[in-house]
Specification:
Shape: globular
Number of strands: 7
Strand order of the largest sheet: 3-4-5
Order of helices and strands: EHEHEHEHEHEHE
Largest sheet: 3 strands, parallel
Distance between the termini: 35 Å
């Protein structure tokens, strides 16, 4: 598994199971990644566009931060998908993967509902480690 992060988060992404950790502030990921079967883009924009160059023919490029061009994917022989709302079954499957320890999550901070604007501001900053959670109801 390949992951990218800033210098301050390289060890953190290694702790999550990344085999090749690339400091995006020093080296463009496409110089080190080689050709891969699957890319999950979480940044969009220029990063999404550069991601096309490392997906093998027959591979998949998914973006949760942008809309990859289907025509470009077709031209390159790769499947491209933009994000869509998760189904109930998707969420069940993801929870099982987490329960089984196959994926790990990291929560940066939990905000109560009345602090939703602060949570939004934090998410818009584009910096930080892990997910930002908005607690809408106590269990």
């Amino acid at each position: 598994m390949i992951g990218t992060a800033g210098a301050e988060n390289i060890e953190f992404i290694r702790s999550l199971g990344v085999d090749l950790a690339i400091d995006y502030s020093r080296t463009p990921f496409e110089q080190l990644a080689g050709m891969v079967d699957f890319v999950l883009d979480t940044v969009g924009g220029e990063t999404l566009e550069r991601s096309f160059s490392i997906v093998k023919k027959g591979g998949v490029l998914i973006s949760i931060a942008g809309r990859p061009a289907p025509a470009k994917g077709q031209q390159l022989g790769i499947r491209v998908l933009g994000s869509s709302p998760a189904t109930r079954q998707d969420l069940i499957d993801i929870a099982k993967l987490a329960d089984d320890g196959r994926i790990r999550t990291y929560v940066q901070r939990v905000y109560p509902l009345h602090m939703a604007s602060m949570a939004h501001e934090r998410s818009e900053s584009g910096h930080g480690r892990g997910r930002i959670v908005l607690n809408v109801a106590d269990a």
